[in-house]
Design a protein that fits this description.
Layout (H helix, E strand, L loop, with lengths): L2 E7 L6 E8 L2 H5 L6 E5 L3 E6 L4 E5 L5 E5 L11 E7 L2 E6 L4 E5 L5 E6 L13 E4 L5 E5 L4 E6 L2 E2 L5 E2 L10 E6 L5 E5 L4 E5 L5 E6 L5 E7 L2 E6 L3 E5 L5 E4 L8 E7 L2 E6 L2 E7 L1
Antiparallel strand pairs: 1-2, 2-26, 3-4, 4-5, 5-6, 7-8, 8-9, 9-10, 11-12, 12-13, 13-14, 13-15, 16-17, 17-18, 18-19, 20-21, 21-22, 22-23, 24-25, 25-26
Length: about 280
Amino acid sequence: MIRAIVFFYLVSGLYGQSVQVYQFPSEFQTQEFSPDMITAGPGDWLFYLDNKARRLAARSPAGNFLFAGGFGNDYDAFFDPVGITVSNLDLIVCDRSEKKLLRYDYKLNYTGSISLDPYQDGSGVYIDNISTDPWGYYYLYSADDHLIRRGNASGIDRLPFLDLNQQTIDEICLESMVIVPNGDIGLLFSCTGEVVIFNRLGRIKSKLMVAIPAPSKLQYVENKWVVVNAEGQGQILDHLETSEFSIPIRADEQLLDCTVNNRDLICLTNRRMLVLQFE
């Protein structure tokens, strides 16, 4: 990969930050692969999803690339992917139209699927967002009813885990959902400019106000909640002090997705990857 390094500091001066700029690898061009989503796994694994081509890519810690998927009716194909996430040794793809989760190992071998039908009546659940916790549970948000459901390898729970309609939230416009190592669940509500933190039992712990306009991505880096927007503005949220920063998004590119790998915030655009290292 081609790499350029740019150094700059957050507005507050409290946190040092550097940015590494990675052009897409030649394998993406050869495979005609255009990633829309990215997620990180243990040991420096990175996984990508090309939504339009319905394909997956994996980059191993050694820098080797694997590809899987594509159009077709194979048992391991997906049709309307709305999210990818890592749970233990599984890569999970959420297929909204098929109402199921597809499971792959890190080398993109298909290992099975999980039905998103809690009532076993064929109704399924229409999913808009997915995240996983360290204990193997996955959490599914549906904008149809503003419920967050939970499940594991055995299937989805019959009763909702969290009903956002019953919470003290001014307006429900969930944009991003992230679960951190201690089980806390962070929900970004873009229209109200706030992040609401729930504990692993579904009770509200705190609310954090966002200063940047139209926040679209939420992540958790170095024990701090971080939000960014499509223009490359970012903010570190803290109960005591907040700090704003900038991501060098060019005028000819769009911010598509973000993930965290150790201390790095990896931002995927339609042209390259920007890796922010917080110090």
